[in-house]
# Entry
Amino acid sequence: MAERPGRKPRRPHSARVVRTERLTPHMQRVVLGGEGLSAFSADTCTDHYVKLLFPAEGVTYPEPFDVERIREEFPREQWPVTRTYTVRQWDAEHRELTVDFVIHGDEGLAGPWALNARPGDTLWFMGPGGAYTPDPEADWHLLAGDESALPAIARSLEELPDGARAYAFVEVAGPEEEQKLDCSVEVVWLHRGDRPVGEALVEAVRNLEFPEGRVHAFVHGEAGCVKELRKLLRVERQIPREDLSISGYWRLGHNEDGWQASKREWNARIEAEQEGAPAA
Ligand SMILES: Cc1cc2nc3c(=O)[nH]c(=O)nc-3n(C[C@H](O)[C@H](O)[C@H](O)COP(=O)(O)OP(=O)(O)OC[C@H]3O[C@@H](n4cnc5c(N)ncnc54)[C@H](O)[C@@H]3O)c2cc1C
# Structure
């Protein structure tokens, strides 16, 4: 089909599954590759993410795959379904993109897809986006999250310069979910056990004795937990907004479509509650 004038199509990348690896009982690594990654790169942020595009059930899209065209020509319920995942590693030399998926049961699209992924399977995705890299000028770093943020936390820790002072807290289901990371920072692994998601993480960050100096913080995970942590860090600890990368990566009881649709309002309400800003 001819390009429409005046519009630069947002073409997704296509990828093929090269190999998979079960890192822990609840974390599946999928390495993507193939010719479709020739225009991809991801080397400026340590929280780079991609938007995986899963076809709506029973729908075949026209070639070349063009999300905007699909959105114009197909009814909403037939649009591809988006799921957001961190670039755990981008190997520019071999053009391989590694993504680590939390396996959180039978529910959802991306988790089950990753669990069943086999070499040769294909996948479309947009991106990358990203906004955070540990600031080398900061006096110390705080990284906190659950297993959904572990890929970004791990990547960030690996990029920290030698000697950088950092505290990293990662909440996981239990000891079997701990990963060996290639970094000099000692990660504090918090085992959730039977406690509600996020409780152990909030407790650990609350109990941290904050060192002197400017902190640069990266805090992501379940939205309810992140809300508590935001209050602690923004309101109680008065960390300036620009030194805080903080957001809900997922929300208990909501799939990503529901969470993304409500996220703006959720964030505005939290800001109003915590900082007295007018709610949007
Ligand atoms: C910038 C960004 C980067 C992210 N990076 C990663 C990453 O690298 N790896 C990763 O695994 N996730 C990551 N996430 C989170 C991921 O996008 C969500 O967990 C997403 O909802 C998973 O999609 P799904 O199709 O498996 O489940 P959905 O269909 O979205 O949800 C189905 C059900 O599962 C629940 N659920 C979703 N995620 C989890 C979870 N982690 N634990 C327990 N229950 C859950 C939902 O609340 C819902 O009830 C990231 C999110 C963002 C915004």
